Amino acid sequence: MANLTIGGIDCTVLAAASGTPLLVYDEAKIEEQFAAAINNFKSDMFETEVVYASKAFSCKAIFKIAQQMGACLDVVSGGEMYCAEASGFDMKNIYFHGNNKSEEELRQALETGCGHIVLDNRMECEKLVSLADQMGKSIEVLLRVNPGIEAHTHEYIQTSGSDSKFGLSIKEEEAIRNIVKTAMDSKYVDFKGFHCHIGSQITETEGFEKAVEIMVAFVRKMNDRYGIASTDLSIGGGFGIRYTDADKPIPLGEMVQILARTCERIMAEQDVKLNKLLIEPGRSIVGEAGYALYKVGYSKDTETKHFLFVDGGMSDNIRPALYQAEYSCDIATRLGEAKDKLYCVAGKNCESGDILVREASLPQTACEGDLLVMYAAGAYGYSMASNYNRAGRPEVVFVKDGKARRVLRRETYEDQLRLEADEQII
Fold first, then answer.
1. Do the Cβ atoms of 91 and 110 come closer than 8 Å?
2. What is the pLDDT of residues 139-162, one digit of tens each?
3. What does each C-alpha distance from 220 to 193, 235, 415 come to in angstroms?
4. Of 240, 144, 256, 255, whose CA–CA distance to 201 is shortest?
5. What does the angle CA 422 – CA 425 – CA 426 come to, to the nearest 5 degrees?
6. Distance CA 290, CA 132 (A)
7. Within 10 A of 410 (CB to CB), how many other CB atoms are there?
8. What pLDDT, on the 0 to 100 scale, is given for residue 386?
């Protein structure tokens, strides 16, 4: 019988130091993924930029690693922007996304020197132009366009269809032209080009290659038909990872290399010149670097299932309940033992849908006090965590070369009460 080690540290040592539920990141794996993206996304025909999609997992520690590795940053809220600024991130290397950016957030972007905004619609463009003109602050913009690619993924994370809440359909040429003209007429707003994103957890190249083909043709059409010159094109992110044996993702370095070569070929075929091509990996940077450790509690047998309960659940990882996401897991303190019993791993939240792994082959000797590890838990678990049932968000530690550091402390009951008030406001 053996214990799982992460970054050179035994899981039981980590759990004893930080408690459970615990999210552990292998810092070397994060750096490896950043390097794979940055070193392989290269071209002699155009500049390339790797933009970390921070909604996958955001904190000051990961932002500092992104900057050290040479990546830019994608933020989708004032909160993520504030965290980036607090981490010391170079604000000119930030891209601010979102379909409903508030006036306060747009002001924040301009005041803090955010380098780029990805415009989502006409109203936002008009508001940004007005604010930039009032404040005398310059900013570069891209416009989000939906190429209509239906990625092979869950409907909730398909983002490129004509009915998507994000961006404009590529068919709306007049509306797109008018938005770009509004931006270009401003003294302070510098239109750079277009952005697209076809979905998430995509494990094949076909969708991305088709999106590149459509978007490069669109860049050419908008220039030929309306005189709109683009220098930059972002093809988004959504690169898939391995959650279970059923997932067969292309390694990130190989994937981005294919995309760079594809764009070179299509640009040559369509006689289109671009200064810069951008990608936005998030899940593929942090997902497989993350391990969720839980303590096993009670077990229960029914007519059809063997339940194994753990001390976390949908409050720290809602993806299985929200997306029917699947994970693989092990009893981290019984590696090497025969996996001879099929369990349903359930959380402690007061919901029947609080299931983390529906069918997990684990040792029948699994018992109270064991540690269970859920693999590839580094993306969207902590980001989407909640205080449902007044559960506290878990602690997060980074491990590397046999050393561990706390980057997000465990949320206590006192932390949860800090916003409680009894104040007359009207």
1. no
2. 999 999 999 886 654 343 344 456
3. 11, 16, 53
4. 240
5. 130
6. 40
7. 16
8. 96
CA 109-110-111 angle, 5° bins:
95
Average pLDDT for 5-25? 98
Backbone dihedral region of 71: left (phi > 0), alpha (psi from -120 to 50 degrees) or beta? beta
Between CA 207 and CA 64 the distance in angstroms is 32
Q: What burial class does residue 426 get, using C-beta atoms within 10 Å of its C-beta: 0-12 exposed, 13-18 middle, 19+ buried?
A: exposed
Tens digit of each residue's pLDDT (9 = 90 or more) over 240-297: 999 999 999 999 999 999 999 999 999 999 999 999 999 999 999 999 999 999 999 9
Nearest to 378 by CA among 292, 307, 275, 320: 292
Report the distance separating Cα 122 and Cα 168, nearest Å: 9
For the chain, domains (ranges, CATH) are 5-23+289-417 (2.40.37.10), 41-286 (3.20.20.10)
Burial of 299 (0-12, 13-18, 19+ CB in 10 A): middle
pLDDT in tens, 335-389: 999 999 999 999 999 999 999 999 999 999 999 999 999 999 999 999 999 999 9
Torsion of CA 195, 161, 246, 397, to 10 degrees: 50
Whether the link from the prior residue into 320 is cis, omega within 30° of 0, is: no
Catalytic center residues = 350
Residue 358 backbone phi and psi in degrees, to 5: -70, -40
d(CA 235, CA 297): 45
The chain-wide mean pLDDT, for the chain, equals 95
Q: How far apart are CA 51 and CA 74, in angstroms?
A: 6
Q: What is the pTM of this model?
A: 0.95
Alpha-helix runs per DSSP H in 71-121: 78-86, 103-112
Q: How far apart are CA 274 and CA 229, in angstroms?
A: 10
- 318 pLDDT higher than 60: yes
> 358, exposed or middle or buried, with CB in 10 Å at 0-12, 13-18, 19+?
middle
Give strand pairing partners of 307.
300, 344
Residue 279 — φ and ψ, nearest 5°?
-130, 160
Q: Which two tokens stand for residue 117?
A: 């905004």
The total of other beta-carbon atoms located within 10 Å of residue 238's CB is: 28
SS3 406: strand
The half-sphere exposure of 269 on its side-chain side, counting CA atoms within 13 A, is: 11
